[in-house]
Amino acid sequence: TPRWVRRAMGAPRGERIAGGGAVRPSAGRAARDGGERRAVVTKTFARGFAAAACGGDDDDDDEDATTTTTTGGGGGASNDDDYDDTTTHATTTTLSAQEMAAYDREGAAYAASWTATLRESASDARALERALFDAAAKDGARRGDSLFDDDDENADENDDDDDNGGGVNTKKQNERADAVRRRKTRRQWGKIPDEKLPRVAIVGRPNVGKSALFNRLTGTKRAIVYDEPGVTRDRMYVRSYWGEHEFMTVDTGGLENLPRNPASAMKIDRVGGIEILPGMIEAQAAEAVKEASVLIFVVDGQVGLTAADIDIYSWLRKYHSHIPLHLAVNKCESTTKGEDQVLEFWSLGDVTPLGVSAISGTGTGELLENMCATLPPPPSLEDGEARGEDEEEEDIPVTVAIIGRPNVGKSSLLNGLAGEARSIVSNFSGTTRDSIDTEVTDAYSGRKFTLIDTAGIRRRTQVKSGSDGAEKLSVGRALQAMKRADVVVLVIDATEGASQQDFVLAERATQEGCAIVLCINKWDKVDKDSYTMNKYTLEMRQKLRVFEYAEIVYTSALTGQRIQKILDSAHTASQNHRKRLTTATLNAVVQEATLWKLPPSRNSRKGKVYYITQASIRPPTFVFFVNDPKLFPETYRRYMERQLRENIGFPGTPIRLLWRGKGVEKVRK
Known about the structure:
- There is one protein chain.
- It is built from 22 helices and 23 strands.
- By secondary structure, it is α/β, with parallel strands linked by helices.
């Protein structure tokens, strides 16, 4: 604290405070020192003392004070070295000692009052903070969760419990308790089953930006976004999070015919240049609306309110009035026209339009806040905790990607395995666009699978020369599904047989490290006898001889023949995909293999295999430690792979062999 402030609050009588902040010696002190001087002290207002005590600016005090003047005597020098008395200022009226003492007392009282007020405010703030943290800590202890990592902070809070017993803000306390609950809830994210999460369906007419908004809300790029009506056809589910809420976001196709049931749609419809079965897109969207907990109705702000928007809104309010509805006016990127675009949609009635932009993200946060406020209560955490405790590594669902050329029956197999019309099925190729994930549980064994239905992949030259611009995006989503999958089911048309494109797709799956199951679909259309299946198997092995380890399954998606065997083969392939062997077992196999066929030699240098170990799984990867990898040609490496498969197994999964040497110079020494 500055000296002049201390003196203002309790200075000796012989010293006074000037308005400018300088302390001058009084007349009595000057007389005692032998100097002839006369001090005149200005009138200083009380709020100047208060501001000085609170650390205020001296310039503000000068506005409320009169100038202080000191007149020097004839050569008498002051013993106070801290002050310079040679400056002469304008003379003001001299105050008596009683007036100066009164002003001193008044200023000191104001300064003390302000200081006490500030001290009490700081004490109340600290008390409130301690009380809130103490309440949160008690709530966390009741839940079995620790809010603090430091024991000293808990000790300090317990010591101050008696001082902070009253005056706690209930609202702040509840907010802090909610924060603790959210922190505990986030640790349970991903453990609650998908079927127990609330569904949020995004609906609207075609080409209004539903898929773009879906990608924005989910933080992914799963849905295909293309400037063409009818790109999205099947409904897509993605797990989403916002704040303390967790839910499933559903993307749907554009509503045109508003079918209450599929039979009310047109018999033939043309969407995106591809003919599809009647009303299937609308039927998929209607199914998503039926199971939704909250609806987001998306309209185009640049086009304005259309008759189709009014019909969809009336349909939603008529048949699904019990579901909370939020109106999102998309494409409101403009800062000048965005608000004007929203005004037209107020005419719909009992729904509040909100301008959003799926491209820039404008308004999406407010949309999520409003949507989460209408979500039902979250599912019980005990169910998620029980699943997290009991779930082992082998119980994790196996991700299976269904890959193949167009119109080979991939979507039909998915619907047959799922037991419902999960994907749109038609006789025209190119019906499926997005990669659709579906959770499936085997009714016999209880094993869980995640099936991914993908778009048909044609040859690269055909895709480039095609007129459908969205096909490139569909092929990209299908290739990304391979990266996410553990097992790839390559579907082949039995009436056409294996082609070069099937070989390319199988090779791509091997490069991604996926296990492979060969599914020969449409087996019911093949004229068969007692030897047909064996002949067909030999033909398949010859055409796809590189993938002789893959199991072949003959199915018919139309009749359901042997489709359950696809899940059994996928489970077996996934187990081998995750198999890990001991180093002793591997070295015993390699030692026997080298005895049957010695490593080749080159330039009087003989290849030596020191030992082998398994480096990783998914797929199984083995490292051979040898003297020089260049001494082992490709034929000998394939021989070692065959020996591992014949003696150990690994059916259905590729294996990788890495050869590591010690270096030529070191071997020569």
